[in-house]
Amino acid sequence: MSLDNYQEELKHHEDRLAVQYLPAVKAMAFRLKERLPSSVDYLDLYAIGAEELVKLARRYDETLNDSFWGYGKTRVYGSMLDYLRSLDVLSRANRKLVKQIDKAVENYLQEHNEEPTDAELAVILEETPEKVREARVASDIYTVMPLEDQVNEGDSGATLERIEKEDLVEVVKTVLGRFSERDQMVIQLYYFEELTLKEISSILDITESRISQIHKSVIRKIKDTLVEDDEQYG
């Protein structure tokens, strides 16, 4: 067999390897889409993941990794998250408005036991419904990012630099130990078990809106605590 023929055959083998795991990529994209607002297209996530899968298959060395999907699934999922980051939705949205919305929703839930509509939030915050909707979509997309993205967002000081040198998961677990069991469970199920708000709602018997607010509140507490610890011990 000539070198050209060998290389062509190798390429076909690698492509067949990628095709074999396309259903897993579809399932991954669908699962991630379940946690995202309707404005994000499932097909975009799948296309990004499939492209990464083919790239990985063509450079996969089975002598170094005995499981292709074990080698590739984290990278495929990471490519989908990179795509969401590339949308740059949070920086386009008014960060101040996102925080105001979170606070307004929390207050509204406590008073009415249900989440306000975009129109109601627009009245409360004296903003247009369009701006409120854009900010909420941006916030919802960002909440699927890994914990390190959540904690580091907006932090350009010493805390971010210190966290990058540590095992963030262990730090977060320590911080969460100071909070209620329910708050800990929400973070555990959302980030470590990767459940949807609907699934967590079924488990904890709490509304999806309330879980969303608990999640954002806990992230805020984690960031505040890390900053306080850094100021105390840094």
What is the level-2 CATH architecture name of the largest domain? Answer: Up-down Bundle
User: Beta-sheet strand percentage?
Assistant: under 5%
Q: Approximately how much helix is present in the residues?
A: over 70%
Quick one: CATH class of the largest domain?
Mainly Alpha
Low-confidence blocks of residues: 1-10
Q: Please indicate the count of domains.
A: 3
Q: Globular, elongated, flat, extended or rod-shaped: what is the shape?
A: globular
Q: Spell out the CATH superfamily of the largest domain.
A: PhyR, sigma-like (SL) domain
Name the average pLDDT. 81
Nearest-angstrom radius of gyration? 21 Å
SSE string, helices as H and strands as E: HHHHHHHHHHHHHH
Number of helices: 14
CATH third-level topology of the largest domain? Butyryl-CoA Dehydrogenase, subunit A, domain 3
State the end-to-end distance. 64 Å
The largest sheet is: none
Notes on the structure:
The protein has 234 residues and is mainly alpha-helical. The N terminus is likely disordered. Helices cover 76% and strands 0% of the residues. It starts with a helix and ends with a helix. Helix 1 packs antiparallel against helix 3, helix 7 packs across helix 8 and helix 12 packs across helix 14. It has 14 helices and no strands. It has three domains: 85 residues, Rna Polymerase Sigma Factor, Chain: A; 55 residues; 90 residues, Up-down Bundle (Butyryl-CoA Dehydrogenase, subunit A, domain 3).
